[in-house]
Design brief:
Elements (H helix, E strand, L loop, with lengths): L9 H4 L1 H7 L5 H5 L11 E2 H8 L3 H17 L3 E4 H8 L16 E5 L1 H10 L4 H18 L8 H35 L6 E2 H8 L8 H11 L3 E5 L5 E5 L7 E9 L7 E7 L1 H22 L7 H11 L1
Antiparallel strand pairs: 1-3, 2-3, 4-8, 5-6, 7-8
Helix pairs in contact: 4-5, 5-7, 7-8, 9-12
InterPro entries: Ant_C
Protein name: Phage antirepressor KilAC domain-containing protein
């Protein structure tokens, strides 16, 4: 008889299932805090090994066996000029945990780290990630079933209440992890609002520059805007948010008035991470709301029972 894979091992053995769940990178921080480089987006091979609690050689072997798939998820190896350009803002390769004479650096974005979790069989952390991914998949694919009796209707309502309570508890549990991650963020090169909007955009949500400016100024109250004498807008961070936002040291001349100069507001690595968490939290809260459908009325329950009879 052919051996059937255990539930979570389906992801190890099925490429289509891995493709189907690869966008759910938020699962990484649900299971365990993922420590990144100071740019808040990339992870090195030793960091991946530490996250999954396995020897470095285990990750090296997995990359060798699955390199093409990992490269589709953004895995890459920097060498020469590309490595120098990447390391310079951090003060050189030594500040990235490498020997000062290192000639290459392997980088994993979050999708590639999740891909490792889908494939790695020698880690309890990866097993928990696969289980979590499949639990989410099952909740999303299970169709609503009409209760056959009043007792079944009550049981369904109780199950939905338990799911809602668990989702809220998971969100509360993530709060200290978010706080701990804050303390790990270090400063690196700052980026413009337009650059950050492009970085954080996904196939599911295209973040416009105007939308990100609106959130920063009007919703989150991180900065204020003044109209200069020339008529253009000057964005300035509030004093308590200067760790998130900074005015660029360089200044740019006004397009129509060469004698008019403006400082450019940029977003720090810590600010970019805070924005990413805010957007993820909004998405999680929206998911929680979807788990709480309106309670059926007595007439609706009676109708469902009659239909199931």
């Amino acid at each position: 008889m052919e051996r059937q894979p255990t539930n979570e091992m389906i992801l190890v053995e099925s490429r289509s299932m891995r493709d189907q769940t690869i966008e759910r990178t938020h699962v990484l921080d649900k299971v365990k805090t993922l420590i990144t480089l100071p740019d808040s987006f990339h992870v090195t091979t030793p960091m991946v090994a530490s996250y999954f609690e396995v020897p470095l050689s285990t990750i090296d072997s997995l990359v060798q066996d699955n390199r093409a798939e990992l490269e589709e998820r953004g895995y890459r190896v920097l060498r020469g000029t590309e490595l120098t350009e990447f390391a310079t803002p951090f003060g050189g390769v030594a500040n990235l945990g490498l020997h000062y004479n290192a000639r290459s650096l392997a980088l994993f974005p979050r999708k590639a780290v999740l891909n490792v979790g889908q494939l790695l069989t020698k880690s309890e952390v990866s097993k928990e990630i696969r289980t979590y991914l499949l639990d989410v998949e099952e909740r999303q694919t299970n169709a609503f079933q009409i209760p056959a009796s009043f007792a079944e209707a009550l049981e369904l309502a109780a199950a939905q209440a338990r799911e809602l309570e668990q989702a809220q508890a998971a969100l509360a549990e993530a709060a200290p992890k978010i706080e701990a991650h804050d303390n790990l963020i270090q400063y690196g090169p700052n980026r413009t609002v337009g650059e950050v909007a492009k970085e954080l955009s996904t196939p599911e949500r295209n973040i416009m520059v105007s939308e990100l400016r609106r959130l920063i100024v009007h919703e989150w109250k991180w900065a204020f805007v003044k109209t200069r004498e020339c008529g253009s807008a000057q964005y300035t961070p509030y004093a308590h948010k200067t760790d998130y936002l900074a005015l660029g040291e360089e200044k740019y001349p006004h397009e129509t008035r060469p004698d008019c100069w403006h400082a450019t507001m940029r977003i720090t690595p810590k600010g970019r991470e805070a924005i990413r968490r805010k957007l993820d939290r909004e998405k999680a809260q929206a998911s929680i709301a979807q788990l709480a459908p309106p309670a059926p009325s007595a007439d609706e329950i009676s109708t469902m029972i009659r239909r199931g009879a």
